[in-house]
Amino acid sequence: MSLEVNKGDKDMTPMEQIQYWVKGKPIHDIDTGLCVPDFSCCFPQLLASQLERDLFYRAYTHKHNERLIRIMLQFFFEASMLSHGRSEDIEWIKEREV
Q1: Domain assignment of residue 34, given as a range
Q2: Within 10 A of 47 (CB to CB), how many other CB atoms are there?
Q3: CA distance 36 to 17
Q4: What is the pLDDT of residues 50-78, one digit of tens each?
Q5: Phi/psi at 41 (nearest 5 deg)?
Q6: Total number of domains constituting the chain
Q7: Could you tell me if 60 and 68 are in contact, meaning their C-beta atoms sit under 8 angstroms apart?
């Protein structure tokens, strides 16, 4: 998978970015600086499974389940940190969670 970015030729909404990601096409939006939820636009090896992407999409769109969205975003963040050997940073963050 190659890194794709929105080069600014059209405005991409956050919803469009999520929809591309769910279809397996993670696009980093350079206009806003936003990564997709699992950071796979910048680190293709982190692409979440189709099931995880579908679950996130349902939580994001249908009932906007904030709790599930936060849990999944934390999971994706931790996976990205672990893939870069940053487990100590995860522990530091968890110690400071409210």
Answers
A1: 4-95
A2: 19
A3: 7
A4: 999 998 898 888 877 888 888 888 888 88
A5: -65, -30
A6: 1
A7: no
Instruction: Indicate the DSSP class of residue 8.
Output: S
pLDDT at 88: 54
- 75 to 8, 12, 26: CA distances (angstroms): 29, 25, 17
The pairing of strands 27-29 and 4-6 is: parallel
Residue 77, by phi and psi: left (phi above 0), alpha (psi -120 to 50) or beta? alpha
Residue 86 pLDDT: 54
Residue with tokens 């990564």: 35
The one-letter amino acid code at 16 reads E
User: What is each CA distance from 64 to 17, 68, 69, in whole angstroms?
Assistant: 16, 9, 8
- Report phi then psi at 78, rounded to 5: -60, -40
CA neighbor of 3 nearest in space, from 26, 23, 20, 36:
26
